[in-house]
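Long-time lurker. I teach an intro course on protein structure, and each term I like to show students one example going from raw sequence to a predicted 3D structure in token notation. This year I'd like something fresh instead of my usual example. Would anyone be willing to generate the tokens for the chain below so I can use it in lecture? Attribution to the forum is fine with me.
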Amino acid sequence: MIKELHQKLINKEITSVQLTEQYFDAISKKDADLHAYLTLTKELAIEQAKYVDEKIARGEEIGIIEGIPGAIKDNICIKNVRATAGSKILDNYIAPYDAGVISKLKEAGAIILGKTNCDEFAMGSSTENSAYGVTKNPHYEERVPGGSSGGSAVVVASDMAVWALGSDTGGSIRQPASFCGTVGLKPTYGRVSRSGVMAMASSFDQIGPMTKTVEDAAIILSIISDHDEMDATSAPNFGKKYEDYLTGEIKGKKIGIVKGYLEGLDAGVKKVMESVIEKYEKLGAEILEIELPNAKYSLPTYYIIQPCEVSSNLARFDGIKYGMRADDKKNSDYNPDGLPKNLLETYLDTRAYELGAEVKRRIMLGTYALSSGYYDAYYLRAQKVRTLIKQDFKKAFEKVDLILTPTAPTPAFKIGENTNDPLQMYLEDIFTITANIVGVPAISVPGGNVEIDGKQLPVGFQLMGKWFDEENLLNVAHAFEIS
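-- Reply from a regular --
Happy to contribute to a lecture. Here you go:
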């Protein structure tokens, strides 16, 4: 889609301003129902589009993404634009700088339409935890779009943006991509800079593209990946263009299927997975059964380490440095007649009133696991298991090139269905979190549909690749898509 629009701009079949206005028109018609955007940046977008049109008019060459409109998850900072991360505690926060990925996109001439809704501080699997309301699945509005990057998935799926950026800590790009029928790529940890992204769990977080096609995801990755001096964990890209690796030829590629992963699935999801495996065999790939013996511990491992990092990272949101503060409009638990009486009570009131239930739950879980007497029993043990899981992946990748799994165990579930059952909500990430635990790249690609209540709901499948081998991962995903 990006290449086709790029060609239309070069051929002067459409201007970037016209294209941008078309998307704002679509947003005005659709977003009142879907609630995927939190902030629109129309002034910035039109200004960017005019600049691109002027370049084209002068006969200058434009880049592949130049003049093409996209959207950004609201936990990624854009200079002088509101950034809430879906939380009331940042309701009045205006970012003073661009995130590393935003600098790269602006330099490449991309058009930014606005900021998308997400679970508060990216904590959730349904975009129901946003302080600004629930985003709805465009295929069935009574169901969730997935999370936490639900808004980004919806704007792409419903043609309110050509591409979008999300963040993925335990599946937050891939699971909503599966629920909404888009492509969602979580790159290798360190492939893309995390600078300017509101840290949730720093050893898991990664930014990636959400698009209609694998080729579009490859194009966006080529632009946003590279070393950034503001993020010491980021790796150089050496000017690699991932779209150049999409040959569609995968004969002889070895794809691993994890024993037991197809058991206990939703019947519709299982049927889609079986058809995906069959299609890859027809394309010439070799399907091998592999074992990841310690992967069964992924969920508890993740939900110990991640809340520990949450507890540390979210300590900064105290109402003093920036963001909202408990004031005399609130009834303080400590002084109902007015302002909190001292600094500690200001902290406690601010966090009590401005943070949502899921965020508080994870802060408390993490603080408990890090506390004296429990650190060794929980956090340290979980880190040791994380190492064992990584060793399992290293052994598996000696036999296979990629690992194929479902993206999620179910299609999109009903809004409110899992709200009161945190464990059931956490289980939505059961297939996606391993990629974050070990840091490998992973992609969700639409694999088919299941019919529910007379509506067709998308189901995605997941491919995981070797560390820093996005080109192979993208090519195998692309081969399925074009066949």
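Some talking points for your students: The chain has 15 helices and eleven strands. Residues 376-399 form the longest helix (24 residues).
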